[in-house]
Amino acid sequence: MRLLGIDYGIKRIGVALSDERGKFAFPHSVIQNCPTQKCARLSLAQIKKICEENEVGKIILGKSVDYHGYPNPVMKKIEPFKTLLEKETGLAVEYEEETLTTYEAKEVPVIGKERYSLSNKKRKGWQGKMKKIDASAAAIILRSFIEKQKVVE
């Protein structure tokens, strides 16, 4: 079963997909997000389209918690998003803890054929490439979920 991973952010939503067997996670895309109801509906519609086009069977959504396991302020936005996502797609949505995934994605992402890290911020075009970080973070969230499933099997 193909899985879809989401790294929810106030400005951007990172999206990742697994292979058909749900064994490997790959960055897919970044969707613009905003706090308005209309914009949220557009984001959900884009996610639904990705799910339909790729025959996704389950969605894995990053759960934003602090180092002590308590919800971060962004969880107040993620929880209603999860409810709408389940309703819009008709798919089960499970949480996977996302602590430090964006940081990890910034440190060692492979974008094209080059590696970028925080020390490369001054490179020309860095801001455009940073947006791909969100998709990489979603892939890390999805990979974490997949790895935990292998332990259970």
Short précis:
With 153 residues, this protein is an alpha/beta fold. It is 43% helix and 26% strand.
Structural account:
The protein is α/β, with parallel strands linked by helices. The protein has a single domain (2-152), classed as YqgF/RNase H-like domain (Nucleotidyltransferase, domain 5, 2-Layer Sandwich). The protein contains four helices and seven strands, in the order βββαβαβαββα. It has helices spanning 37-53, 75-89, 101-107, 126-152; strands spanning 2-8, 12-18, 25-32, 56-63, 92-97, 110-111, 114-115. Strand 6 and strand 7 (114-115) form a beta hairpin. The chain is globular. The two termini are 15 Å apart.
Task: Tell me the layout of helices and strands.
Layout: E1 2-8, E2 12-18, E3 25-32, H1 37-53, E4 56-63, H2 75-89, E5 92-97, H3 101-107, E6 110-111, E7 114-115, H4 126-152
Parallel strand pairs: 1-4, 4-5
Antiparallel strand pairs: 1-2, 2-3, 6-7
Helix pairs in contact: 1-2, 3-4
Number of strands: 7
Q: Which of globular, elongated, flat, extended, rod-shaped describes the shape?
A: globular
Please state the structural category: alpha/beta
Oligomeric state of the chains in view: single chain
**Helical fraction:** 40-55%
CATH class: Alpha Beta
Quick check: average pLDDT? Answer: 81
The ordered H/E elements are EEEHEHEHEEH
Across the major sheet, the strand order is: 3-2-1-4-5
The main sheet comes to:
5 strands, mixed
Using brief descriptors, characterize the structure shown:
single chain, 153 residues, alpha/beta, Nucleotidyltransferase, domain 5, five-stranded mixed beta sheet, two-stranded antiparallel sheet, 7 strands
